[in-house]
Amino acid sequence: MDFIMRPFEDADAVDFAQAVNQSLDTLLPWMTWAHKNYTVDEARLWFHLTKLQRQQGVADELGLFAADGRLLGGAGLRYSSQSLSPCSVGYWVRSSEQRQGIASEAVRRLAEKVFRQPDINVVEILVAEKNIASRTVAEKAGATTITTRYGLIVLDSGPVNTVIYHLYRNSEDDD
């Protein structure tokens, strides 16, 4: 599926809240920010935070939109302030749009974007070990499993085993 990635705008808030509420079956086990009755005001607050983070250079959260404007989900980069720590990527796709390759393509696009910066060579993806769908996204995007560690992700149920994936800059990108 073809889609565009762009920053969220206040006009997206109603669609965002609807997408979250319609996707609780797949979000609630893994995304602690998702909850029943997610509101338009919460979406707007999130959008304002992501705009501030983009301006500060600490994150780049983007909406995923179909050609017809439908909100498909979100994906974003988090930049580390420590030079040895990799940049990380996160993603979610609304339930009705899953299993179409949207998330893995979004991850690939974000990796391409971040690797244009000469000082970033690794993008990290952290996934709860039992989140098979998200692990599949990381693997389809070309990420390599590094290790599994306990407690890097804390869900509502408590800390869980976390699979660490890395995407590496392609040596051809340096040409």
Provide a descriptive summary of the structure in words:
Helices cover 30% and strands 33% of the residues. The two termini are 30 Å apart. The chain is of the alpha+beta class and 175 residues long. It has a seven-stranded mixed beta sheet, with helices on both faces. Helix 1 packs across helix 3. The model has no long low-confidence stretch (mean pLDDT 93).
The class by helix and strand makeup works out as alpha+beta
- Compute the CA-based radius of gyration: 16 Å
Q: Tell me the number of helical segments per DSSP (H or I, 4 or more residues long).
A: 5
Strand % is 25-35%
Overall morphology: globular
Give the biggest sheet.
Answer: 7 strands, mixed
Number of strands: 7
Distance between the termini: 30 Å
Strand order of the largest sheet: 1-2-3-4-5-7-6
Query: In terms of per-residue confidence, which ranges show pLDDT below 50 for 5 or more consecutive residues?
Result: none
Report mean pLDDT, rounded to a whole number: 93
Helix content: 25-40%
| SSE string, helices as H and strands as E | EHHHEEEHEHEE
Write the layout of secondary structure elements.
Layout: E1 3-6, H1 13-22, H2 24-27, H3 40-56, E2 59-66, E3 71-78, E4 87-93, H4 102-114, E5 122-128, H5 132-140, E6 144-155, E7 158-168
Parallel strand pairs: 4-5
Antiparallel strand pairs: 1-2, 2-3, 3-4, 5-7, 6-7
Helix pairs in contact: 1-3
